[in-house]
Design goal:
Largest sheet: none
Order of helices and strands: HHHHHHHHHHHHHH
Number of domains: 1
Radius of gyration: 21 Å
Strand content: under 5%
Helix content: over 70%
Number of strands: 0
Structural class: mainly alpha
Length: about 300
């Protein structure tokens, strides 16, 4: 549950810093607003969380991707070079430049894995908590939605974000201590500093709201499974307080252990997944047989 607290604090700090930079709103106020909104939704349970996230996330992704595609369209000639830089410096050290410190292959792999896992939750065993509450005709079908999430989140959204940062040169203009400003800086090349900052701040605000909603739900279910329903209510309050503490930059020593905490989750979960691999294969085979059978029956009815 400690990783839930750390994750919540990091998310809150990210949006608080961005909103402060764009609108001058103190981080404490942003933290309080996020805490209030999250608290209001989680009281309604998973159904309320689902209704909120299913509306906000697609809308924010569409708006963000329109911005990204627009910037890339202007810099389309630099996209091949950007891919070249990604692959070149993935396999050889790079000297310090902008937000990127000198690093070797090991460091690139280490940070790539850490940020990738934090982005898409693949292998952590947390996303199934939400998927298990969904209504689906077959467990394998719901599992494929989990795969789809990873593809959209990491392979599409994160890759295009990286291309925007590289093609606009934002990675050389912003220091590592202000890495959160790279995307607004990249967007500013097309939309101007004021509009870009406002756009990213609003998008990030709603992204953080939906992310924290799910994280807190995960934490509640973990606490409930281990110590009962009453304790999960107590932890709900702890998570909400963590939002405010994270927004103002408090307890940063916890953040430093976030990657370690995530590794402690991934390793035992991956072992469990390996033991369950035969069962997963069996369920998946059954899904395809069922789907194939249903397709044939529908075809016969049409004919």
């Amino acid at each position: 549950m400690l990783e839930i607290i750390a994750s919540t604090m990091v998310q809150a700090n990210s949006v608080a810093e961005t909103v402060n930079g764009s609108f001058g709103i103190p981080p404490l106020w942003t933290g309080l607003v996020v805490m209030l909104l999250v608290g209001m939704v989680i009281v309604g349970g998973i159904k309320m969380i689902g209704r909120v996230t299913e509306k906000l996330i697609p809308l924010m992704v569409i708006v963000y991707m329109i911005g990204v595609i627009s910037v890339l369209a202007v810099n389309i000639g630099d996209v091949p070079r950007a891919f070249g830089l990604i692959f070149e410096y993935a396999f050889q050290p790079i000297s310090a430049a902008g937000g990127f410190l000198g690093a070797g292959v090991a460091a690139a792999i280490r940070w790539g894995l850490a940020r990738g896992l934090y982005s898409n939750e693949a292998g952590m065993g947390t996303a199934p908590i939400a998927h298990s509450a969904a209504k689906s005709s077959h467990p394998a079908k719901q599992g494929f939605w989990g795969i789809f999430e990873v593809i959209i989140d990491t392979l599409v959204v994160c890759t295009m974000t990286a291309l925007v940062i590289i093609t606009t040169g934002a990675w050389t203009k912003v220091g590592s201590e202000n890495a959160a400003d790279m995307v607004p800086t990249a967007f500013a090349s097309l939309f101007g500093s004021s509009l870009a900052g406002s756009m990213i701040s609003v998008i990030l605000f709603f992204f953080v709201i939906t992310t924290v909603l799910i994280i807190v739900y995960y934490g509640e279910k973990q606490a409930e499974f281990l110590f009962g329903h009453q304790f999960s209510i107590v932890m709900r309050g702890v998570y909400l307080v963590a939002i405010v503490l994270g927004a103002i930059g408090g307890l940063q020593f916890i953040w430093q252990f976030l990657d370690l905490l995530l590794a402690m989750i991934v390793l035992p979960n991956m072992i469990a997944v390996l033991f369950l691999s035969k069962k997963v294969k069996s369920i998946t085979d059954d899904y395809f047989k069922t789907a194939y059978k249903q397709t044939n029956e529908q075809t016969k009815k049409i004919n």
